[in-house]
Amino acid sequence: MKKLINDPRAVVDESLEGFGLAHADLVEVQWDPVYVTRRGGAVQGKVGLVSGGGSGHEPLHAGYVGQGMLDAAVPGAVFTSPTPDQILPATQAAHGGLGVVHIVKNYTGDVLNFETAAELCAAEGIDVRTVLVNDDVAVEDSLYTAGRRGVAGTVLVEKIAGAAAERGDSLDAVEAVANRVVANVRSMGLALAPCTVPHAGKPSFELADGEIEIGIGIHGEPGRKCVGLEPADVLTEHLLTPVVEDLGFEAGENVLLLVNGMGGTPLSELYIVYRRAAQLLADRGASVERSLVGNYTTSLEMQGCSITVLRLDGELTSLWDAPVKTPALRWGV
Amino acid sequence: MGGVTVTALDAAWADRWLRECARVLAERREELIELDRAIGDGDHGENMDRGFRAVVAKLDEGPSESVAAALKLAAMTLMGKVGGAAGPLYGTAFLRASVAAGDRDKLDGPAVEAVLAAARDGIVARGKAEPGDKTMVDAWSPAVKAAATPADGEAALEAAASAAEAGAQATKPLVARKGRASYLGSRSVGHLDPGAISTAYILRAAVTAAVSEISAGDVE
Question: Which pTM value belongs to this model?
């Protein structure tokens, strides 16, 4: 394992320390327990938005704290959900009097910890709504698994719900728009090579030379199958087809297309994937109205990518276009 | 028992149990990481080690006043420090166990069964797993069943720990249906469930804490 770290146990704290210093104009890092808030804290009279999850998916989630997106983010240990004693104060810090929406990826650990935290928040008198993101179509038979995972679509939920909160929507309305994004967003990913969790010191799974894993979650855990390497155009089709079919796609739809890097794949390759995905969508009669290409939901240094498609309508498009000013996403400000 | 004595399952035992958990889980850290790496994400050993190190730090502040107090201290610390699925699951288990221990000074056989059953019920309520899903329930469930017969507390613990070990080993051929391993489907077959294994270590630690060398502090 070769990593640019000091002590494997200090990775999350030292990284957050640097993050706080680099973006001191936008965020504040709180210690003991650890969470990240928008600089200046909760905005009074605005619905609060909190997300969180394991570290190692940067810029998810702390990178999306700021105007027009999250009010607080709760980072756990690497690939491990945060704990209720972090989520409670983060929620209190995000509470501007109108309640708070928790945006939670559907992973067993995240769900259990946020569920426990929501009970604690309710006991403190904060109205908390939980929106579960489960955009990953790779998990085929949800009956016999923990259900579909929340992956890169989470960024779109956070951006759009954040814009709704920023324009002054009520708690019910922010929750509803977040759920509308969840209902209309699907993703699927692949890994060319695994990543190494610093404290484990070994790759998180094995892939032989010439093998790739199709349908991974954001920790590299598999969903569908291990297959041989193929050209980018073929792999893009493997990812896009199930996504579009699951959306129940019809010609004439407007979509947002996100090609997300897992952390170890160059932007040039992501654009090759984007090129083919856009062609395939055009073949199906879809109009790609908005796009995003880059490392937005990563798995440390994993090589690979995911494709996310969101079905847009006028309101979702305008919320997507609304100003956002965070360390990792910024436009219109 | 020749040089070995069985101590009462009292507050001092509960503190020794938690310290023994920390010792064993630190020792088994790598093994649990390796088991979890195979079918999960490789953090179970690290998380359990971190959680129980924090429990020991709390215990160092002073001895627990009761079995219930020790179990509650463990519950709150694990919930706060472990994260992942194991944090809320073990946290809930120890919290429910603490409530079941109530104001008893020490646990006899029926009390051991009641405490373990409460822990298992807490895990089932939070995680919604059933026996056969390839989770820690596959260790807890036989443990509770085995603890039902002996009237003596230490014998009940011994029966529970042995049954948990057998239950954990029996997860190997199962297909995971809960947690991150469930995404592997049939590819999870042939691997032990890390949560079931850590459960077996935790219950064995309870026996080790009960069967101790005679020393001034331990004699009744």
Answer: 0.88
